[in-house]
Design brief:
By secondary structure, the chain is of the alpha/beta class. It folds into three domains: 6-125, no CATH class; 153-172 and 266-390, Rossmann fold, CATH 3.40.50; 174-262. It has helices spanning 11-20, 26-42, 51-56, 58-69, 92-99, 108-111, 127-143, 150-157, 173-191, 199-213, 224-238, 245-262, 269-278, 291-300, 313-316, 324-331, 346-355, 382-394; strands at 5-8, 47-50, 161-164, 282-287, 309-312, 339-343, 359-363, 376-379. A six-stranded parallel beta sheet has the order 5-4-3-6-7-8, with helices on both faces. Strands 1-2 form a two-stranded parallel ribbon. α11 (224-238) packs across α12 (245-262) and α13 (269-278) runs parallel beside α18 (382-394). The longest helix has 19 residues, at 173-191. The chain is globular. It starts with a strand and ends in a 5-residue tail after the last helix.
Amino acid sequence: MTRPVFIVRDPVRVFDSWKKLGWGDLYSFFICYRSLFKMLQASPVPQVVIYEQLVSDARGTVAALADYWDILFDDWCLEFKRPFGDYILNGDRDQSINQGTVPDGLFDRVKTHTHVEDFSGHGLLSALEIEHIEAEVGTLYLEAYGPRLGPVLTLLASKPWFGFDLDDTLHEFRKTSAHASFSVFEAIQAAHPDAKETIDDLEATYRDVLRSKTANAFTDGRTSEDYRRERFSHLLEAHGHEPSTETLEHLLVVYKNRLRAALTLKAGALHLLEKLKARGKGVIIVTEGPQDAQEWTIAELGLKPFIDILVTTNEVRKSKVDGLFTAVLEKYNIAPGDLVYIGDNKQRDIIPARAAGIDTVLYDEKSNCQFDDPHNLRLNSLPKLEYLVCVVHHGSWGF
């Protein structure tokens, strides 16, 4: 009796790999991805292997496969002894598909390893592409987990509060601030056409200024303009330019205007917050940064109607690693078990939140999802969290 096994991989990661090879046709991708699930559904007793589980627990996954196939498992099963592409093939057609001409680089990563390995993503997808992929085929991927997601669904259902970091979790802060800073460098260069420094020189100096001037995580209570004025003043002085009041005011305007123009939500962020509020969940933002800047950012992004509480290090005068989460729980009388916190930085979001007894979701766009520990999840897109919350709300799970 044939015992087929279907390997299912996160469609966001798959299309990211497609784009790396120059394959950018989303609709062809959707056809291929759905075709796999049609075969799966047509199989009498489908055995599904989640690729992300395979790379995180190769031994356990392959051992389960050996048991399914009723063959002896040994650790040699985890090593690739034969040349890549050395398959048992069913005729000329299969040989042509699997051993014929393939695009350069298609299997480069696989060929360089002798064991199952995990890889970071390429980061090539736009927010619109991620939203489109998750809307079209993301459901299929999550449903492939079946009852293995049960503990995750139960945990999310129990949470009355959802907390978020702001920068690089709900919006593209690094990219946005980089655009704004570049406009400042251009303005400085335009004002000093005879100066020898290049844009790259100004950028390198500004990185040093940022490292030295943001170490306190904005806990001293100043406004965003105070911080920016200080940084631009140091940048000008480092290159021998006078930081006059007029010059600094001009640079502040340049920076803020470019910042506003470049503000971009993360894929699925707005829809996720809308769904959370529609389901009666409380939404709290706990973030590092000047209070006025974070309030301005939330308003400009259109997120204000969906946020119940905004807490910044600037307001509380504590950084995330110095007790901010505990202070927030005490101030707003939220039990640690009532909150799940989503952030993009393991050191500044996840570790201190967990130390305060809060369940967490690491938002890491270039990594695989991890659902093994429902108290410490990892997701690579916000639409996945939205879908899990929606499934919890409706109390159903479509296999």
